[in-house]
Every structure is written in structure tokens, then in C-alpha cells.
Amino acid sequence: MTVSYNYLVEPMMFGVFSVVWQEERSKSKIVRIILSENQDVSIKSIQNIFPAARQSSNRSIIRQVKLMQSLLSGQSVKFDLELLALENCSHFQQRVLLAENNIPRGWVST
User: Fold this and answer.
1) pLDDT tens string 71-110
2) Is there a contact between 5 and 61 (Cβ–Cβ < 8 Å)?
3) How far apart, in Å, are the Cα atoms of 64 and each of 8, 48, 80, 108?
4) Superfamily, domain 4-101
5) What's the predicted TM-score (pTM) here?
6) pLDDT cut 70: percent of the chain above it
7) Per 3-state DSSP, what percentage of the chain is helix, strand, and coil (rounded to 5)?
8) What are phi and psi of 33, to 5 degrees?
9) How far apart are CA 17 and CA 7, in angstroms?
10) More confident residue, 19 or 77
């Protein structure tokens, strides 16, 4: 089974937002999000972690990037968690991330 990695780099008002995703059996899953000062730093980080990754585009990933941009600009959004490679996280990390996802915007929980 072959897994390929792709990335998308998007400039934002506070820096560069990059998403790395894997393609496996026609399914896309986000494996890393990188926030950096500029595009060169972001691409270098991606290439260090995922040397075979190539710059690409994907409709569902672009939709998630737009949602992330909306969230970072203060809007309330709901993400498609099926696009996240949560299997790369420990069981505890998965539980924490899923619990965080259920906390309403503006609320704090411990």
C-alpha cells in the first residue's frame, strides 16, 4: 500500500498557513498543519519532515483550509473530522482532541 504526501501553502494576514495531507486509496487525510513566518520557511519545514511531499491541490483540503482561515479570523466553524489523520495520535491525544472539538466557541473547559 503506497501513501503519498501532498501540501498546500496559503498566505494569511499573520504569516503562512500550510497543510500536509496523505493520499491513500483515494482518501485524503490531513497529517500536519504548519504555521510559519514566510513561505520559504514553511516549505523547508515540510520538506524536512516529508521529503517526498509535493505541492498540490485538493477540493476537500481547500475547503478545510478556508474553514481554518475563518476560525483564525474569529468565526465559528465546524470541521469535518473525517479528514484528520487522528490515527497518528495516541488514544489519549485522540480523546483530548475530540473533547476539545465539542467545547462551544467562547467556552473554557478543563
Assistant:
1) 888 888 888 888 999 998 999 999 999 998 888 888 888 7
2) no
3) 11, 24, 8, 24
4) Methylated DNA-protein cysteine methyltransferase domain (3.30.160.70)
5) 0.84
6) 99
7) 40, 30, 35
8) -125, 130
9) 11
10) 19
